[in-house]
Fold each of these.
Amino acid sequence: MEPTQNVTEFIFLGVCHNKMLQPVCFVFFVLVYIATVLGNLLIIVTVKNSQYLKSPMYFFLSYLSIVDMCYSSVTVPKLIADFFMEKKSISFGGCIAQLFVFHFFGCTEIFLLTVMAYDRYIAICKPLHYTTIMTRFVCGSLVMASWVGGFMHSIVQTLLIIQLPFCGPNEIDHYFCDVHPLLKLACSDTYLIVVIVIANSGMISLISFVLVVVSYIIILVSLRTHSSEGRRKALSTCASHIAVVIIFFGPCIFIYLRPSTTFSEDKMVTVFYNIITPILNPLIYTLRNEEVKNAMRKLGSRKATLGVK
């Protein structure tokens, strides 16, 4: 006989159990979230309004900032609000919606980072064909494919979870609804679903990471034939991308490319790639990229001039 579905809500245990530390955590997450939204908005506005940032790299960067902003917004506002709640609850429908949107933006970011690595490969290894290969249509198609890929991945994850019976308990030792914590609460055998989750989330992360690493290895090898100035500029750009890739893919692979077991480090690892990474992306891309910094300065001076007038 199938277990009955009698769970109507889930209770989060949260990210910080120490009452004394909760005010510190609250302030920290509020500041990080504000910085994430403002930092990514600044990149989006700069790329949109600067005539110097029209290459495909910045086109992809602006979409990465949009995804980062949305990705962080799926979980952080709820996490911040829960610091004021004695009972950190979420409805069953809200939990499933959060799971879907979280994986949608997370997987879209994975595909976008892979696309950005491909863009750098074409720009550095095939510079004479770059403008003919990376046309506006191709760039738009790659972004659209990233969104569609993220949607397909998320649909699979959500359908796997939504058909499971949940008959209690309903406490999730986490701060948002994710696959592994929910699988632990299911009232049925989840072995096959765990295998599918690993094949879906884990392998997408791993394969994309391998593709990105291979592309950058090829880029680094090809740089030997470039001039010292060209090599320096290419290395600076690639270093930014590599840093973002390692920071984002490492935790994803750790979380999803393993059986449905939980470790005490899981929440902190999730905080890192879900909350910290979206603020690191604008910092890494702006601090290491002279073109973006110059465009921001020109945009700021132009706004100031208009304000004076």
Note: The beta strands are 9-12, 89-91, 171-172.
Amino acid sequence: MISLKDKNALITGSSRGIGQQIAIGLAKQGCNIIVHGRTSESCSETLSLLKKYDVKIYCVPGEPSEESKVNQLIKDVKQLEISVDILYNNAAIMTPFHENIWKHSWDEWMDTFKVNVFAMYRLCGAFIPNMIENDFGRIINTTSGIKDQPELAPYGASKWAVRKLTEDIAVKLENTGVRINMLDPGWLMTDMGGQNAEHPVEAVLPGALSPALIDNNGPNGAFFSAI
């Protein structure tokens, strides 16, 4: 297990829920945190929770469903002039449950893939090359154990796309100090998971930190479960 002290982590969707817990967990490891939410205001709670840790904290807002705003997010992070050592692609959306499985609209499919897949891909492309140059990097893409639920088809398909992309990108990182893996956080009580979920959101720790703590020759393109 490596030390993350003084490393820098960008965690998308860290203004609340699972991302917020991951930010807290990494801060406890001495990792500096770049908090992301759709707006600066939405990041305030997480920023407040992180103040008690001896780490540097930043807030970079951005709407992950719009290409121009994802590009601006990347630009704003780079203007911090710090290395992004850990990229936690956690931001995701889930469109409504449709009992008629053929009623998922074109827009629902597109909105889901823009946030859950396209933004993740763009962020990987923005920060992985520098990680390779620095001979260190950890990318963790949040996926899901969802299956057999065509009522949530756009979400389920997007998470399988995340898994496929993670596995394919991993091949290009084999002989580097960069590892890319995926995490299933489990069914948690969040805005997305609902109050009938099996576990409180806090249960995502410490398991969600495991893919960030692996050695440079550790798992690559692998599936981790937080619970």
Note: The longest strand covers residues 178-184.
Amino acid sequence: EWEQHKVSSVSKVTYGGGTPKTNIKKFWNGDIPWIQSSDLEINRLFDISPKKYITNESIQKSATKLVPPDSIAIVTRVGVGKLALMTFEYTTSQDFLSLSDLQVDSYFGIYSLYIMLQKELNDLQGTSIKGITKLDLLDKELMIPKKVNEQKKIGTFFKQLDDIITLQQQKLTLLKQLKKAFLQKMFI
């Protein structure tokens, strides 16, 4: 049995983000991951590698917040539609809304939000999408199974499919490199 829920019910806590002043060197090159929209890809929901890191002082003196692990980071401005399940503590730019203390299975939650956002983007195709407000996003609706066990089974199934796809893509890349090496040896 599934029920309709607002996105706001998926988590107990939400976080916005902010960008520490880039001209203050002591705010940067710390050990706290700072995620920006360009770190995420539209069809990649896991294994995000941050490119920038900030210091504790930058958190204290900017709008960015320290988000706990196992939260879902959603791009709400430039790059709308990108999201990721973050397995580590992180901070974000102001282009994000993060959902923490999830009230659904994390894999089920990330896939449900991904499908909802992709549908929204497809429905708006042809228009210039500048962003989605926090309130609009939290007011969107999702269908969620009542039983957490069912959520886990669905989430795990899609995660396993993603893992298989990633593995096959890696194999394909290796085969293409091998082909290129053989061609170079044969014709050079």
Note: The first helix runs from residue 56 to 60.
Amino acid sequence: MTAEVINGKELAKDLREEMKQEVTALKDEGITPHLTVVLVGDNPASKSYVSGKKKACEETGISSEIITMPATASEEELLEVIDKLNADDAVHGILVQLPLPEQIDEDRVIEAITPAKDVDGFHPINIGRMMTGKDTFLPCTPYGIVRMLKSRNIQIEGKHVVVLGRSNIVGKPVGQLLLNENATVTYCHSRTPDLAAFTKDADILVVAIGKAHVIGAEHIKEGAVVIDVGVNRIEDGSLTGDVDFEAAKEKASYITPVPQGVGPMTITMLLENTIKSAKGVLQY
């Protein structure tokens, strides 16, 4: 068996074409979806991510702005910027690029963004709505993973999902979203003994732990679906995932590559959340 590759870049392109039409229709009604991204400091990876988000907005017709602040900016200065954006009716989505400099409390910043503009889906109110199955802004990477599975009509209901990783950004929420789809979910992490005992029982394996090639063919059940969220830069400068792709694809039924897998879907779900905010369909 050689796995079928779920190409996130191709799926994202198709979804963005649909979004272009939605944005055009909203503009005809006098509404231009707008996303503001706040970047504190000059972290090269963060600058790259922010640039990618702006480009994606341009492709779909979404208005966007990048507010840059120095790495020395205080928490109070950042909160003042967020307050102004919260009050600006022309701004539909606010995203503060993480990580933040050490003098700034990330939790306080996330909670300062009004839930109605929290298109990252990180505010505790939106997380709570996700947990209880209510309509909300879903965290972008986990939401993108669910959309990738559904794009191939992969059955989630009744399947055993094993999630490697317990971050608030990916691990915890992706497990909850798949639980909401009636999967049986097991979480594994750095303190889990005999990891393979769990991963080899997974119908769907989601790997998000940030270690290159930590999962090989010996960890995977024949015919499993493997979703690789990890992005690791190795010695030759190339990017690779948490899964040994070449080995795993010989046992899996479906697998996501790195790059061009989950990453493009993350930004696409951010665009979808911004459009959703502009439509005003969520009530808080």
Note: The chain has two domains: 29-114, 140-263.
